[in-house]
From TrEMBL:
Upper taxonomic lineage: Bacteria, Pseudomonadati, Pseudomonadota, Gammaproteobacteria, Pseudomonadales
GO cellular component: membrane
Keywords: Membrane, Transmembrane, Transmembrane helix
Domain of life the protein comes from: Bacteria
Protein name listed in UniProt: MFS transporter
Single GO MF descriptor: transmembrane transporter activity
Transmembrane segments: 39-56, 76-95, 107-125, 131-152, 164-187, 193-215, 236-255, 275-295, 302-323, 329-350, 357-380, 392-416
Length: 426
């Protein structure tokens, strides 16, 4: 039997199934952990989210040291910034498959361990390890990131926008911490960049410990699952996906290359890492406030345009404006990018009728979107190699930003994706 999201069932038999399915969903959601200890679930979500960016943002401030230490060419260094983002997209489609079989909570627990392993491998095994570890870390982050919007939609439906802002804020905090402290940590460890990078396995293991009660309790997802059909034919789903990909491409250019751009403008590696960290830290403000404000209007189109224009102003300022005003532009960039990313995740939740659709839309948006996003850092490295400077990178910023506005105007409409959900009994 099938349930159609966004349309009424045409047969009485389908109506009866819909009632039964919703009753099953209600029973699944009314687990003791969710009702009696929502604070533990929320704490777990925040700690998990904190670990979804350090593996990415910790590399940029020490990229020069890694390249020199391992003898990497500029192209290989560019690949190193691109590979984890590409893996975010390539492995994201595995998330709903694993969740249907094992349950989202169990998958997240296991993948956190894989993330910690990837960080350790990246730091310990030379040239091969830095690429293999980056691949493992990127794949891990891609899988976990897909599952979080569905959990928020399922367990906090009345506060989905606010909770999306909370865990987006945690993502930004984790990115800022790693960007700002990896170089100082390396100095603490006798200027050994490998130990500075490897430190970020510790928070992942801590998140595992806090998440264990969720994995033990589960929410029945491994017993009652849903298969969503028609998503890849839905224009709104593609608009959400392309907005996610284009704004993410700008974000990963910042994570991967902003310190190198600033070093090229005369900053030291420590100063460049602090600017990146400060910019990402500012995202805490807009990542929490932008979804809340955007859900107060009739739709999210105006908010999408505003945050993307702010992002572009910050990017162009960091690239072209006098270095004396750099911190102001970095703050502007952080406010813009915190809003763009938080709205991208919020759109996944708001454009979905229920948690099952949200999980699958999240898989599509992040799978295709991050694969597309990985081309941005690669393009920046290629343009830098061809021109020998950074000025031409502004064209990449402009094209990606305007594209994000175009698709964001479609994704920001107050509609739901039109899909069919099939219940799969295990």
């Amino acid at each position: 039997m099938k349930r159609v999201n966004g349309a009424e069932p045409e047969q009485h038999e389908a109506d009866e199934w819909l009632i039964d399915a919703e009753a099953d969903d209600e029973q699944v959601q009314q687990q003791p952990v969710t009702l009696q200890r929502p604070w533990l679930l929320l704490l777990g979500l925040v700690l998990v989210a904190l670990n979804l960016r350090p593996a990415l943002s910790s590399m940029a401030p020490v990229l020069g040291q890694v390249s020199d230490g391992l003898g990497l060419s500029a192209s290989a260094a560019g690949l190193l910034t691109t590979l984890p983002v590409l893996c975010l997209g390539l492995f994201a489609p595995l998330a709903p498959v694993l969740a249907r079989r094992l349950g989202s909570e169990r998958v997240i627990l296991g993948i956190l361990l894989m993330l910690a392993l990837g960080i350790v491998v990246r730091s310990a095994w030379g040239v091969a390890g830095v690429f293999i570890g980056s691949l493992i870390a990127g794949a891990s982050i891609g899988i976990i990131g897909v599952l979080l919007p569905g959990i928020v939609k399922r367990d906090f439906p009345a506060h989905a926008g606010t909770l999306t802002g909370v865990y987006t804020m945690a993502l930004c905090l984790g990115a800022a911490m790693a960007a700002g402290s990896t170089v100082p940590l390396s100095h603490v460890f006798d200027d050994r960049w490998a130990l500075g990078l490897g430190f970020w396995a510790v928070p992942a293991l801590l998140a595992m410990l806090v998440w264990m009660p969720q994995a033990r309790q589960g929410h029945g997802a491994h017993k009652v699952a849903y298969r969503v059909r028609g998503l890849w034919r839905d224009p709104l789903a593609w608009q959400v996906t392309l907005y996610m990909g284009l704004q993410s491409s700008l974000a990963y250019i910042v994570f991967g290359w902003l310190p190198s751009i600033l070093i090229g403008r005369g900053l030291s590696p420590t100063e460049a890492g602090l600017v990146l960290s400060g910019s990402v830290l500012v995202q805490l403000i807009s990542s929490l406030s932008a979804p809340w404000l955007a859900t107060r209007g009739k739709d999210q189109r105006l908010a999408i345009v505003l945050v993307m224009l702010i992002t572009l102003c910050g990017l162009f300022g960091c690239l072209y404006a006098p270095v004396s005003g750099l911190w102001g532009w970095a703050v502007l960039l952080g406010l813009g990018q915190g809003g763009t990313f938080a709205l991208a995740l919020t759109l996944i939740v708001l454009r979905s009728k229920d948690a099952h659709v949200a999980a699958n839309l999240s898989s599509m948006a992040q799978g295709v979107g991050y694969t597309l996003a990985s081309m941005g850092p690669f393009a920046v490295g290629l343009v830098h190699d061809l021109t020998g400077g950074w000025a031409a990178v502004g064209w990449i910023f402009g094209v990606l930003g305007l594209g994000a506005i175009v698709f964001g105007l479609g994704a920001g409409r107050a509609l739901h994706v039109q899909v069919v959900s099939e219940r799969v009994q295990r």
